[in-house]
Amino acid sequence: MSHGFPPHAEIPPVESGRAKVLLVEDDPTFAEELSIYLGHHGIALTTRADTDGLLDELRAQRPDGLILDQFVAGQDLLDMIATLRQVYAGPLLFLTGNTDPVDRIVCLDRGADDFLSKTIAPREVVARLRALLRRARTAAAPPRPPAPVSDVIALGGWSLAPAGRLLTAPDGRRARLTDHEAALLAVLMARANQVVARETVYPVLFNRPYVPGSRTLDNLVSRCRDAVREVGGTLSVRAVRGSGYILHGFSRDATTKRPTRR
Description:
By secondary structure, this protein is of the alpha/beta class. The chain has helices at 28-39, 54-61, 81-87, 101-109, 122-140, 179-190, 198-206, 216-230, 252-255, and strands at 19-24, 43-48, 65-68, 71-72, 75-76, 92-96, 114-117, 153-155, 158-161, 166-168, 174-176, 196-197, 236-240, 244-248, 260-261. A five-stranded parallel beta sheet has the order 2-1-3-6-7, sandwiched between helices. Strands 11-10-9-8-15 form a five-stranded antiparallel beta sheet, covered by helices on one side. Strands 12-14-13 form a three-stranded antiparallel beta sheet.
């Protein structure tokens, strides 16, 4: 019996790299078809038909991802999520014939990352799985070290002393900053009038990768605006939707020059 997987000729090119994923599924036909389909998408699938020894296999093999049917050999694997999470923290996706929205909510509340119906388009299964794998790789990636800053950064009459957490306006008025506010302005002043991506700024300030949806950076930008407002002038920190942040408001002459460091 076919489960709607397209023939090999219709499958897009393999994505570089091969993630290793474990499938727990007691329908051998579905397991075989999914294995072939994912294989052509750069995902190596290992299958098993029951949960006997599953915890030991997870500890030993440490797969990049885990896919579970909900009902396997008469067992509801929703009841096993908490136990699985004690030994496995990676992407956990349920791919099941069940479409009950209540079970979907229970599944996610108990710690799974996604709950998909087997009637979903196979290409979306791949897309959802790849998204979970990318997110897991990003979370595990070592943070980039903080960028070094000079004693004073000067631009368009403004000056910033990151170590002293002091921002000075062209007319001499000053604003005291926090460590994070000073670090953020240092990054933005070094790229004045250019959009700086959140993914670039976040690791410099917090020494860990940016987490999509986090409001930490937006709140910091808001506090920086308040600090700049204290000393007046036209300097402005603006969020660019879907991209990052930009520092602007210098004179025309200042915008044509690179920031100077002294």
